[in-house]
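Workshop exercise sheet. Pairs work together: one partner reads the sequence aloud, the other fills in the structure field after running the prediction. Swap roles for the next sheet.
Pair: D.N. / O.F.
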Amino acid sequence: MDAAIAEIPKRKVNGTITGSEFVPDSARLEQTPTSQVLRFTQGALPTVDRELVIYLKMKFADLTNGHSVSVASDTRGSGLPQIVKRWRANPNSRYAPASKTFGYGYVLKLELEKPVNGQLPGKLYVALPDKEESVVAGVFSLALPSTDPNQAPVPGIAPITAPTGITPAEQEAFRRRYGGAR
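Structure field:
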């Protein structure tokens, strides 16, 4: 299929992933050293029910300058976006979701507009070459990540710390005996 003929509906991003209904609860933009990552997530982090992740190999400035990406199903090459679908066969499962990565063979039409009030509006159409014919399409708006290194972390996404199982009294006794923190 050609991405040019893919029609993007004027409704919120939704569709099917691995044969199950996909209605994202959140859409985020994350930066890595080599990519800009678009995440459409259904369910609570970190073990989501379903998720579509798109790795765009471009600079942040290019992404926020009204960028479009079109990939036809027969397109090959090293600069293509990588797409990952994650899903749980049983939403009540305590196990990590399954995932499958697509480097080619998919159809992608992504139209990003210029940012407005810290939000990046866009349109998306993705059809994956899986046997379940996963398709996700619609419009979205992402909060832009801060480029200020002094800004506090995003509220609601707190770092997770492992419990130590040590009481404050035990920590103090350890510090007095060995002269350091445990």
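Discussion prompt: The chain is about 10% helix and 35% strand. What would you look at next?
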